[in-house]
Amino acid sequence: MSKIEDVVDSLENKISKVLHRLEVLKQTNAKISEELTIQQQKNLQHQDEISSWVEKYESLKVANSLLGSDENNRETKLKINTLIRDIDHCIAQLSE
User: Residue 48's pLDDT band (boundaries 50, 70, 90)?
Assistant: First the structure.
């Protein structure tokens, strides 16, 4: 009878340890999930910031070409032609 009780006690201890380990892993998982969410939000913010800087860079390139810089002259002319076509298209739609 003593052996059965020892086996049962041993099993109870092992089950207790497994349940404790499970709880610790659940807490760790929750913490990591929270950190992942925070990092994903930071990543989105950085992507927005990069997009903003790219737009500013493109605007500066156009401004430099308009001020006489020869580096981006072709790009500026293409951009102006595109804007003129868009304006012409809008005028055509308004006159219909």
Answer: very high
